[in-house]
Amino acid sequence: MSYVARETLARQADEILTTLENRELSKKERMALPQQEMPAQDPVARRETMSEVTFGYTEAQARVEAMRCLQCKNAPCIEGCPVRIDIPGFIKAIEDRRYDHSIEIIRRTSLLPSICGRVCPQENQCQERCTVGKALKDPFQSVSIGRLERYVADRAREEAEGGSPEVNAETGKRVAVIGSGPASITVAADLRREGHAVTILEAFHRPGGVMIYGIPEFRLPKSIVDEEIETLKRMGVEVKTNFLVGRTRTLQDLLDKDGYDAIFIGTGAGLPKFLGIDGENLVGVFSANEYLTRSNMMKAYDRERADTPIFQPKVVAVFGGGNVAMDAARTAVRLGAESVNVIYRRTRTEMPARAEEVDHAEEEGVIFHFLTSPKRILGDDDDRVVGIECLSYELGEPDDSGRRRPIAIPGSEHVIPVDTVLVSIGNDSNPLITQTTPQLEANKWGNIVADENGKTSMDRVYAGGDIVLGAATVILAMGEGRKAAAAINRMLRGEPEST
CATH code at 436? Predict the structure, then answer.
């Protein structure tokens, strides 16, 4: 997709809207409307800045895109939404310029629309089921639900005056929420609304979880996450940072000594995996988690003001094909790397990263080596990375994930010279809580075992998000948090568990 300037996209939308105003559109006319492209910074200019890449829709763009919605009676898009937002309802309100009503509809089930509208993989969820995309036989031509969610959420945020959701009368019950990512924020808000006293216990010095330490500023401005945390505080939620459960206090301490009536564990999956190949202990090899945390949370990219050191790359290799790999590659670009190479053993079609993030990475000069996998990392006499030896692959039959299995081609070894390697092949759960709580059941991967309501093997202890699911998405974590909060509310009221 070639770059189109923001002003051009705005003018085109204005012209379309002028011809449609005050008309009742037929289904055929709605289907014929062009999908509105997201305005973004010039690819060359944005390589030098951490500011957000995309600008968001103009009002005209949002309304034209909303007019593409067919308002299907069976609403298949809702079935694809983990928190079941009334998608046709909020989109129709945008078309009718009823923006306050639109955001009110979204907030009935989603607490983080500005965030979800930016980072959730709508193309694999609500938009995948969109009737428009299916009719056009192109899922990428579905109604841009995520972009519309972002538009109305940002509009409401800009016009807001620091309000917060209503809170019921105090119940006298106390709940500890461990972690402050999307699942925990959802749980904290839902429980506080019911009148329970809620305390968030965060291991880092700053709350926000993966939205703060994992997702770069150019994709999700940290000010947006900070505003959501402030909303929780205005509701009366207490936030304690530098509180490492398993060291500062154990789970049992929180129940027995501190008197909490229930606990929710939402600590995510932040323990990086490595390939186990030769050379992973060389100078210049990092997990993407560490690299991104230094840049995102510690602002190491701001060399004049930040105290946190970060390795200065020249030629970078990123192992992996997910969103974290794209974040690491695009961060390396902004930190001055001369060349950034993504090494992925399947093709672009099988990449789990969002298509938009891959497009943005390519626009910014990231080089993709598909059907390629590292065999070993090469070092010099000072144990510093000088290259990676790779194998070429071809695709065979589908594996358990449904993607075609990569098969190594014998004798295809080749070397790519690099001085930095960022490993982004997935994460496991941090074992600290399960190691210090023997009665808390975990599976062989270290994920906490919980039922469909988030209930764990410990009485009054619930869990949700990546610590249960493994590495997932913001919206999936929110969906799990919502179910767990409902179960905790029932338990605190003395009601039987839902089945």
Answer: 3.50.50.60
Quick check: is 483 in a domain?
yes
Give helix then strand counts, H and E, for the chain: 20, 16
Is residue 169 in some structural domain? Answer: no
Residue-wise pLDDT tens digits, 241-285? 999 999 999 999 999 999 999 999 999 888 899 999 999 999 999
* Same domain, yes or no: 316 and 338: yes
- pLDDT digits over 277-321, tens only? 999 999 999 999 999 999 988 888 887 788 888 888 899 999 999
Query: Which amino acid is residue 293, in one-letter code?
Result: T
Which structural domain, as residue segments, surrounds residue 309?
Answer: 272-427
Contacts of 89 (CB under 8 A, 6+ apart): 105
In DSSP notation, 345-403 reads SS-GGG--S-HHHHHHHHHTT-EEE-SEEEEEEEE-TTSBEEEEEEEEEEEEEE-TTSS
Closest CA to 99 of 143, 36, 57: 57
* Helix/strand/coil percent split, the chain, to 5: 40, 15, 45
Are residue 358 and residue 436 in the same domain, yes or no? no
Shared domain check, 397 and 294: yes
Pairing state of beta strands 262-265 and 285-287? Answer: unpaired
- As beta bridge partners, residue 406 has 395
CA distance 249 to 120: 33
Total structural domains in the chain?
3
**Starting from the edge strand earliest in sequence, which strands make up the sheet with 339-343, in order?**
285-287, 420-423, 315-319, 339-343, 367-369
Same domain, yes or no: 51 and 197: no
The predicted model scores a pTM of: 0.92
Cα 498 from chain centre:
29
The alpha helices in 375-473, defined as continuous H runs, are 432-435, 466-469
Residue 444 lies in a domain: yes
| Cα–Cα distance, 410 to 306 (Å, whole number) | 47
Distance CA 463, CA 430 (A): 14
CA–CA distances in Å: residue 386 to residues 83, 275, 376, 435: 47, 18, 11, 38
Note whether residue 499 is domain-resident: no
Q: Are 483 and 452 in contact (CB under 8 A)?
A: yes
Q: Tokens 């990375």 identify what position?
A: 385
Asked if 41 contacts 150 with a C-beta cutoff of 8 angstroms, the reply is: no
